[in-house]
Amino acid sequence: MDSKHHIVILGAGESGAGAAVLALKQGFEVFVSDSGPISPKYVKELEDAGIEFEQQQHSEERILSADEVIKSPGIPEKAPLIKKIREKGISIISEIEFASRYSNAKTICITGSNGKTTTTMLTYHILKDAGLHVGLAGNIGQSYARQVAQKDFDWYVLEISSFMLDDMYEFKADIAVLLNITPDHLDRYDYKMENYAESKIRIIRNQSEKDVFIYCADDPETIDILKRHPAVAITYPFSIQKEVEIGAYIKDEQIIIKLDTEKEFKMTITDLALQGKHNIYNSMASGIVAKVLELRNENVRASMGDFKNIEHRLEDAGKISGVNFINDSKATNVNSTWYALESMTTDVILILGGVDKGNDYNMLKDLVKAKVKSIVCLGKDNKRIHEAFEDDVDVIVNTFSAPDAVKMAYHLAKKGDTVLLSPACASFDLFKNYEDRGDQFKAAIKEL
């Protein structure tokens, strides 16, 4: 057993509960503490396993007696309790860091401000279809720790957020993918882009010359941070703006992937299941991973051609009287909304708003002017959206529930238009999370 025998886990969501299961299996004394209510399914799991826990409070004395703390990614570094733990010199790590100590599986770790969930799911789909014994974890599905405790995969595809990266130290990605770095979560990084970029580049931490790093050569923030933190791994860039010698690029409407000067993988863009410029990037990244693992070309083409995108990401939510409804509730930052608008081919009624994380709406202005007829705000405080777009669209209205937003958007739309829920904001002012927001949006469409 590890010399650190008393583990405290802060947060009892999927990552916390999974970490508790693994810690117990490894023989640790475990205590789980959540400042909010714990979901009944996790309460039952902890009780059944005999794991001590508390909810809707933090017993500081008990927590500060820990040898090590596993922290939920959602708890900010500036939280008073975290500061006290740091002051006592107690190690704070992420669930990903903890789980990696007890797994010999290889990891494919995907991060980026936008597209990471889609790319993670697509990569997992390709590998699973090719017959690899692969798990899916991180920011998605069952926690990595739970799967390490209960399953035995050869590979894991992990969606990794900046919050997870902040508490990773010894963990190493065998294959690391950095899709892009655009403004997001700046409230957690003192509103400094360089702090956020420093967090993202931790994805290459501890990599050796035998590991692989895949990145977007068209992303200026990525190129800039790599100048300060050059990768030591084998690197494969991908680009739609230029040809690269080794990596992936576009030529004659085809994705071309070359990992050496001899062999090429080619796939016509129109055959990809995921359309739109942003999804070409996602497909390139996944395709490079597949070829690093030497999967057969025909298998990779088939998987990239039949993939079904995730719920709440540019999800077709139905059509009523010729008006299309699209659920992009997972767009919790401005850049995600930019990608959504960029892929639209009709006039748009745009549903925006929620918890603003220090958004700069300027990057949306040209697309809003070109494609958006009206904006329906869905949030408690919509002042900044009005200020940003009042000169760009004829109508901006406020709503405070999903049914009201859907009714208003439908009223403003005409046949052939698209009602797009792509909020550019977090959801916590009116909803439990972005999934709840998307589900309420879809339910409201059915009620029309």
UniProtKB/TrEMBL annotation:
Please report a single Pfam family linked to this protein: Mur_ligase_M
Q: What's its EC?
A: 6.3.2.9
Please, which domain of life does this record's source organism belong to? Answer: Bacteria
Similarity section:
Belongs to the MurCDEF family.
**What is one GO biological process annotated to this record?**
regulation of cell shape
Q: Name one GO molecular function term.
A: ATP binding
Question: Catalyzes what?
Answer: UDP-N-acetyl-alpha-D-muramoyl-L-alanine + D-glutamate + ATP = UDP-N-acetyl-alpha-D-muramoyl-L-alanyl-D-glutamate + ADP + phosphate + H(+)
Q: What is this protein called?
A: UDP-N-acetylmuramoylalanine--D-glutamate ligase
Q: What does this protein do?
A: Cell wall formation. Catalyzes the addition of glutamate to the nucleotide precursor UDP-N-acetylmuramoyl-L-alanine (UMA).
**Species name:** Arcticibacter svalbardensis MN12-7
Can you give the residue ranges of the Mur ligase C-terminal domain?
312-425
Positions annotated to bind ATP: G112, S113, N114, G115, K116, T117, T118
